[in-house]
Each structure stands twice: as structure tokens, then as C-alpha cells.
Write a sequence for this structure.
């Protein structure tokens, strides 16, 4: 099998505006996410792209050579060009995997792929988060125990305005009492989509071993299973002869 080609996309704004975020992620959150993928998938070709690059680092040519794209954005969702969103959507429908992280729930691409508002409840109060594995046989849960915890995270709670997931891998419980569907799978066209909740910028979540393992497992799971080039042909010449019936 060819090496898995993963592009880690980062908005790369908080890191430069908030010294607390810059201290946790001195090379950017995208660099930490990429480092985790390389740690767990040593044979994968992992690279990064950011909002500030031409085409946000996602040219047609680069996306054509991408098997799985991960997406973290928050304060600059509206700065992402619609042309790039169209392009990513097309590639997902063709078969590219898409992993949307944390505040990416409100990204243009996630809302485009799912077709709902993707809103949720939130709180920044250093809640402890416990991620329960509710589908232990799923490839994204490989290598995990029955649950794992993050000592401090932002809380995301229900209702989460998403279409019912095709598969549910994690449900989170928070110290304040809320629960949230924190690991959700969908298929759109030929592409696999995974949403993974943790990853608020002021916490070292993308340095956490379990979080890194989940993102790596998800990248492998989302590997394209062939490619579907969209077309809508008029099938004027069917394989069988159609007889005229009186
Ligand atoms: Zn957040």
C-alpha cells in the first residue's frame, strides 16, 4: 500500500495573538498535530498547510495528492475562501478523508459537508473531560482503554446540531455534568469524515498521547477506498437491447 499522505491544516491565528497559546504551541497547533501523526504513523507522509499561505496551502494540485486532510480553525472561519471550500468538498466526495477537530465544528467545510448548523453548548471553565469509548471494535478506538481523560478542557455539550452520525466512537462527559458526542463518523460521497472534539487552543491537548493516537487512527480509517469522479452521463447506449413494447 502507498504511504498515507496527510495534510494538517491550521488556521494559525491564536498562536500569534495569545501568548498562552504560543507558549503551548511555539511552532503552531498544526505542527503539534503533525508531530503526533508522525509519531503514530511513521510511514505516512505528513505535511502542514495554513490559512496564510496562497490558496490557504490547498491548491488543486496539492489536494489531488492528499489522502486525508485534518482541519483546525476557530476565529477565522470566515477568512477561508469559498473557492477552497468548494475544492475540498469536491475532493471529499471523490474519496479524500476529512478529520475535523474541535472548533472546526463551525468551519465552512464541516457545515458544507453535513448541511446542518453544527452548533453546540460550550463553557471555558477548566472542566475535566472523560472520553468514553462507545464503539471499542472501531478502528479509531484501537489501542485505547474503556475511556481516557483530559485534566482540563473546554466543555462542549449537547445539543450538537449534526445529522445523526453513521458511527459513534466516543461520548464525552464533563466535570460540570454535560455529555457530548465527541467522536462521530459520516460518509459523504466516497469520502469518510470524522469529527473529534478535544483541542481547545489554551490547553496542551495535541501533546496528549491518547489524542494523538485517535487522530492517527482516524487518518488511517479515512484513507480513500478508491476514487469516484463525479459525472452525470446520459446512458444512451445501454449494455442490453431495449425492445419497444406495444
Ligand atoms: Zn475551543
Amino acid at each position: 500500500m502507498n504511504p498515507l499522505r496527510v495534510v494538517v491544516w491550521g488556521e494559525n491565528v491564536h498562536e500569534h495573538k495569545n501568548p498562552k497559546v504560543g507558549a503551548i504551541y511555539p511552532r503552531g497547533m498544526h505542527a503539534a498535530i503533525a508531530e503526533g501523526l508522525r509519531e503514530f504513523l511513521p510511514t505516512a507522509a505528513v505535511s502542514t498547510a495554513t490559512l496564510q499561505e496562497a490558496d490557504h496551502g490547498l491548491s488543486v494540485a496539492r489536494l489531488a495528492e492528499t489522502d486525508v486532510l485534518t482541519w483546525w480553525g476557530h476565529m477565522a472561519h470566515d477568512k477561508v475562501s469559498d473557492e477552497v471550500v468548494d475544492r475540498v468538498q469536491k475532493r471529499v466526495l471523490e474519496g479524500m478523508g476529512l478529520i475535523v477537530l474541535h472548533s472546526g465544528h463551525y468551519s465552512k467545510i464541516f457545515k458544507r459537508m453535513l448541511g446542518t448548523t453544527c452548533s453546540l453548548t460550550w463553557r471555558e471553565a477548566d472542566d475535566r473531560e472523560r472520553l468514553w469509548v462507545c464503539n471499542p471494535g472501531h478502528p479509531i478506538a484501537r489501542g485505547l482503554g474503556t475511556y481516557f481523560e483530559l485534566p482540563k478542557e473546554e466543555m462542549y455539550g449537547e445539543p450538537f446540531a449534526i445529522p445523526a452520525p453513521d458511527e459513534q466512537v466516543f461520548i464525552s462527559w464533563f466535570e460540570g455534568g454535560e455529555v457530548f458526542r465527541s467522536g462521530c463518523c459520516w460518509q459523504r460521497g466516497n469520502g469518510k469524515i470524522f469529527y473529534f472534539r478535544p483541542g481547545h487552543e489554551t490547553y496542551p491537548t495535541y501533546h496528549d498521547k491518547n489524542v494523538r493516537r485517535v487522530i492517527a487512527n482516524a487518518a488511517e480509517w479515512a484513507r480513500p477506498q478508491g476514487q469516484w469522479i463525479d459525472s452525470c452521463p446520459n446512458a444512451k447506449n445501454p449494455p442490453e437491447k431495449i425492445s419497444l413494447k406495444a
In short: The helical segments are 14-17, 19-24, 29-40, 60-64, 82-94, 108-114, 209-221. The two ends are 54 Å apart (CA to CA).
